[in-house]
Write a structure and sequence with these properties.
The chain is an alpha/beta fold and 259 residues long. It has eight helices and seven strands.
Length: 259
């Protein structure tokens, strides 16, 4: 299927590795040119080169922290035009809520709720004017099924979900869609880190911890970054213009609810 994206420009945040990188790679394979962002120059620059070499797309790396207003402005200015916006930021540290101070809550809200909303604010009006825009927020399966250790992530991401639901309905008439992709357990550095912490606290090995998690997933495996990236790319396609204000849960069937 031709997704109708050749020649468009995408701004992909948190694209140096993991799910953000996978989204950028899938879009580049569809002929999309990219500005890819990360806080770490030693990771984003080689990642951008790999995507360009594999796909032939124009890929511009930008070192930026989306929680900083000046970095957000600079990031948007680096893109000739933002047809597609993928918001993505690393989740806060896991832990018990009793251990988190007020400043840590504010930082989590800034990074995982307010920064994506600000990125949308900076890019949405030109999308409306061109009558094409696709915005995908990478959030978390914890929005539907909160994770005990990820309390700092559960709240801000749920807040983002509520906020963009209303925004998406305001702009749908202009062929601008906003959707959230909620990853479950994907084989990424983030999940490996969380499983390492869980294993240490439980006294199990890392492999035992992973096996216990896989046993709860109906698909009986962890997700791959590539399949996540392709799902993201489809939501950005011309064909997905009637899909908006949705929360696409990719979790191998783990969540047992209907809604």
């Amino acid at each position: 299927m031709d997704l109708g994206l050749k020649g468009k420009w995408a701004l992909v945040c948190g694209a140096s590795a993991g799910l953000g990188y996978a989204c950028a790679l899938s879009l580049a394979r569809e002929g999309v040119n990219l500005v890819v962002a990360s806080r770490t120059p030693d990771r984003i620059e080689p990642s951008a080169r790999r995507i360009a070499e594999q796909t032939g797309a124009t890929v511009i790396p930008v070192v930026a922290d989306v929680s900083r207003p000046e970095d957000r402005e600079r990031l948007v200015a680096a893109v000739p035009q933002v047809d597609i916006l993928i918001t993505n930021a690393g989740g806060p540290s896991p832990g018990d809520f009793r251990d988190f101070r007020h400043e840590e809550w504010l930082a989590a809200i800034e990074t995982n709720m307010l920064a994506p909303l600000e990125m949308i604010r900076l890019t949405i009006d030109p999308m409306i004017a061109r009558r094409f825009g696709r915005i995908v927020n990478i959030t978390s399966g914890a929005v539907k099924s909160p994770v005990d250790m990820l309390v700092l992530s559960n709240g801000p991401r749920a807040g983002l979900t509520g906020a963009v639901s209303g925004i998406a309905r305001q702009v749908a008439q202009h062929n601008v869609t906003i959707n959230n992709v909620l990853p479950g357990k994907f084989d990424t550095d983030r999940l490996r880190s969380n499983n390492t912490n869980r294993a240490r606290k439980s006294g199990r090995t890392f492999e035992e911890e992973v096996a216990l998690q896989v046993a709860t997933i109906p698909a009986r495996r962890l997700g791959t970054a590539a399949e996540f990236g392709d799902a993201c790319a489809f939501l950005c396609s011309e064909q997905a213009g009637y899909i908006t204000a949705q929360n696409l849960l990719l979790d191998g069937g783990l969540f047992p609810g209907l809604l």
